[in-house]
Amino acid sequence: MIPAPPLAPQLTTSEAGASDWRLAWRQAVREPAELLRTLELPGLAARVSAAAAGQFPLRVPRGFVARMRKGDPDDPLLRQVLPLDEEDRPVPGFVHDAVGDLAAGGATGVLHKYRGRALLVATGSCAIHCRYCFRRHFPYADQTAAAGRWREALDYLAAHPEVDEVLLSGGDPLSLATGKLAEFTRGLAALPHVRRLRLHTRLPVVLPERVDTELLDWLAGQPRQVVVVIHANHANELDAGVDRALAGLREAGATLLNQAVLLRGVNDSVEALAALSERLFQAGVLPYYLHQLDRVAGTAHFEVPDDEARALHAGLAARLPGYLVPRLVREVAGAPAKVPL
Ligand code: SF4
């Protein structure tokens, strides 16, 4: 299954001055050769997989590239985005739909796995392509809620009064224009049983320009509680621009949480995990979940065995106050909630 091509938000002439985030989005690095040239890593070219890049193309915003260390083939941010030949190796147990998303579909773009919460796959678009992504094989073309079809998703939510929290996910829901998000939340106004709106997004971290005045005004105007879960995996992902974006989200009334994935070669040490928690808290974000990798085809080289994951988590708990220790969990297809390890 080939994911939908990146649907870059349209940039009109009249928007060009006002919407820097769209420009930054469009200027993302898409060629492994350019990325390796920028980072002065010509030797890594031999390990790049054309097949993996064809199935799930490289895409990384230039601002995120600027946070990578030049000359370091093991840079933890680079490792998250570079398609390597390790992805081509089939490994038993690593499949296309590891978390049962396709079976959980309630209406077009609605995943209703947990009783009180419904997740809307709002869009297939992302500003960055993360190699470990559990939805890298998801058939977005058929399954997004926003593609002119908010109505179906809203009808589904209206028919399920037990749903008190709606999650917008994707892809990345903040890749949608703010007007499109506002169209959805206007529809939510007729559904008083939905008390919380949660956004799962990597954009405030990978493209902080997205957190612009229009987005903050929309957030601040929400009548229900808003939770924004950012997805940062390493302390180096946060810089001053990200701090500003996160401060803006907080000031607009959002509660900020982080969900990280435990990744071999990225954050598989107590030091890296502790630094991430400390850095997140400095930016006003509470570490919420540390996820075991979903066993998705092409991602086996990122996996940390459960015993090692538990030992890392225990090491983290011994070092940090409890509120900085994320819960170590795994998603199990068909389970009524995330499963603690
Ligand atoms: S931003 Fe999230 S959905 Fe998009 S590629 Fe990365 S992990 Fe996957």
Q: Into which percent range does the helicity of residues fall?
A: 25-40%
On the 0 to 100 scale, the average pLDDT is: 90
The top-level CATH class of the largest domain is Alpha Beta
Low-confidence parts lasting 5 or more residues at pLDDT below 50? 1-8, 10-18
Output the number of helix runs. Answer: 13
Biggest beta-sheet profile: 10 strands, mixed
Q: Tell me the span between the first and last alpha carbons.
A: 30 Å
Oligomer: single chain
Enumerate the strands of the largest sheet in spatial order, edge to edge or round the barrel. 1-2-3-4-5-6-7-8-9-10
Overall number of structural domains? 2
- Shape, per Cα inertia axes: globular
| Strand element count | 10
Secondary-structure element order, N to C: HHHHHEEEHHEHEHHEHEHEHEE
Unique bound compounds: iron/sulfur cluster
Could you say which structural class the secondary elements and strand pairing correspond to?
Answer: alpha/beta
> What is the CATH architecture assignment of the largest domain?
Alpha-Beta Barrel
The proportion of residues in beta strands is 5-15%
CATH homologous superfamily name of the largest domain? Aldolase class I
CATH topology of the largest domain: TIM Barrel
Radius of gyration: 19 Å
